[in-house]
Amino acid sequence: DACCLSVTVVPVCIGSAEHTQSQKNEKVQCSNHDATHTLVLSHNGKLSEHWTTASADCSETRLVKGLGNRDIVQIACGDQHAVVLSRGGQLFTWGQNTHGQLGVGSQSTLIPQPQLVEGLQGISLAQIAAGGAHSAAVSLSGAVYSWGKNDFGQLGLRDTKDRDCPSYVGALEHWKTVFISCGADHTAVLSKEGLVCTFGAGGAGQLGHNSTRNELTPRVVAELWGARVSQVACGRQHTLVYVPSLDKVYLFGSDEEGQLGHERKPTQLIPLPINSPVNTGESCQENNTSQEVIETVAGGNQSIVLCKKNENSYLNGIATLKDEDVDTWISNFGLQHWESIKKSIRLIFSSEACINGSFLEKRDKHFKTSKDFSGVDISEVQRFYEKISKKPKVLQEVQKEIERLLPSLSSSPISPENFRVYLVLPFLLQGEDDSSYHSLGLLAEAIMKLQPKDLQTLECLWSNLETSFFKQLVILYQRVSQKNLSQFIVEVSSCHRNPLNLYPHETVTLQILQILYQVNSRTGCRVQENNFYVPQVKVIIRLCWVINTEEMALWKLTKYPCIFDMQDKIDVHYTERNVLSNAFSTINLLSMGHEQWLFPVRRQCLLQDIWTHLNDAPTQQFRRILMVSFVGETGLDEGGPSQELFSVAARTLCQPSTRAFRRLASGLAWFHSQASSCEHTFLRIGTLCGMALYNGCTAPFPFPRALYKKLLGLAPTLEDLEELLPAAGRNLKGILDEECDHILESLDLNFTIMEEGGSVVAVELKKNGANIPVTKGNRKEFVDLYVNYVFNESVQKPFQDFMQGFLRGCPARKWKMFLPAELQIVLQGHTKVDWHLLEKVLDTSTVYFCYMC
Q1: Fewer beta carbons under 10 A from the terminal one: N or C of the chain?
Q2: Domains and CATH numbers, the chain
Q3: Residue 263's CB: how many other CB atoms inside 10 A?
């Protein structure tokens, strides 16, 4: 692997090849396996490149341009390409690109100037490596990425396809990788626990698996199990590892030129030790201290064991936030220190990678980073914010750098580690000033640029936030949404704004708020719904009453129903109804003359007259406001006659004699299983319910909550089944909770359900269900199929007709903003009465009445 040194070392060489290193702490240099390509990083940050051609007398050294003033912290050489890492977390490559080893997605076979590897933007890299024609990198949290040549499987991606962009090595997920080394065509990784995995070309035994087979997937070197390796290095076709507890260097692979020491086989298939030279050579002994450690370097056909005099790794890392840095920022406020402080702040907070590498969970928990676990300690973020808030100048500088960074956030993350920045930044922008609101808006825009699958990952990470932090996140976006809509109202009221339009920056934070609401709903409503309400919508609704047009801004806001409370939703529904009825009146003014629908009925033939009106009515008729009159009775419909019509019709249709619905022991009404819609019964009932909603009346059918879920396109659950069929629901819950296999077996259940009609019939829930017993392994599937059958499969035709009629009877569509519980209340009325509360209210009213008398 590339050899990088920045401390005084004493080399001890094994093998025939010549290898030299600087003895001064002035520069860092690395070479490829054949020493034909060398990078040299000087103490003043200048990076030079040295090439040696086939003729030893012909060489070329040049200063590497194109890196600007970036502080380079790591360098690595492949056979014909170079990889460097900046302190700001950016990775650059250049050189030959015949196999995509530069990772820039380009088809060019040669790129002479450094190019940014955009695929790793935002990843907090800990270490980089370069092989013959492939490259690799390890993140601070142990994620491994590889790209380039892969004909032997050296990328660890389970195939032999080359990659021209960095790919995440999923086989090493959660392996806590801390170091990686690349040979000509093989790769070795070291875990924090001291385990070694190798993969790629194995023809010379360089993988250490006691075979010459190639490995497409990372495989643990079994011979080193339990040895706790501290270092690993790959040569062209051999590998070295160091075990400090045994003070041994283990070597395996090709020994054609003696690089594995004396008395070795030409091909060593398993790791065998040689004594380390720490205590054997005079040059090492004279500087030997208790702090000495061993460092191994494998060249092309050589091996070097380096005796170092301090414990600090030669690998310098990217900039991440440290407690001591923050203390310095806060304490040193003289003019002479401020420029240095600003430079430090800029270095970290202008870099997505540096932010992602800060605030990590302690005790190695961040090594478990996945789409379910961010690896970020949000409480540390909060503490940092509180600390710098005491120094507004520092806080403003941090937020200024964040604002500059936001437009460039990666929109194509390749790792869960990329998402940390989306969790950290809101808590650093929680001020209640215009600048913070603007930055939160920019962050929202960056989030909404993510692909759907990536947005799902972020939602999953949000769902796993502690409730207090999740609530804080909701409140942040609620505040900025309030501010945006308040500004909209001011501009519209002062006639400085088209009242029909909302700008993208005003709706993007509402999108985030709606997504957070959906996450909250999926995780058990940890945050109360009123935290999502935006009071400004009430004012906008009133503005729309004045404007009275179908193109009003209000309709755009209805895409985000979480910001409306229940009364707001009712007002929106009636606003839409009034717009529709007025539009109908305008279109039909000459022919119809009125926007009302006169609806005379006879009490003794109520249902018959209702069905007659519905059968004869054209679709557009349902837009008009209903005006009910009972034949033979005087008076105008101010709401009473209409409500009476729907109440009487619902009560009549629920009578057993009509056979329209099943009346269950729970007191609820449901469709008959496998029922056909005889004479359009359910189409008519659905139309009647839709008309009730449109006209502001209740239709008190005793339907379960599941019906309103289905109307809104939501799937009923086991809890809904327990409401409709309490006994069956409790039994199914018992099946899910049962831990004893023999009790479950004794129930003798299979994938069928017993239907009661004219006779009891067993219906299979899946193909061949009668022969599939319910076990612990499949009981969840059984319960899901049971619920699905009751609410969907068995009532598909009648509900389909009911839904069709409902949409016909209610031409307005904003009712879909309602939650199932809200829609049930609006359409069915309150089904539960708090008699104790009513008693208190009546007592108070009586006392007040007596006092007034």
Answers
A1: C
A2: 9-308 (2.130.10.30), 324-449 (no CATH), 719-791 (3.30.2160.10)
A3: 7
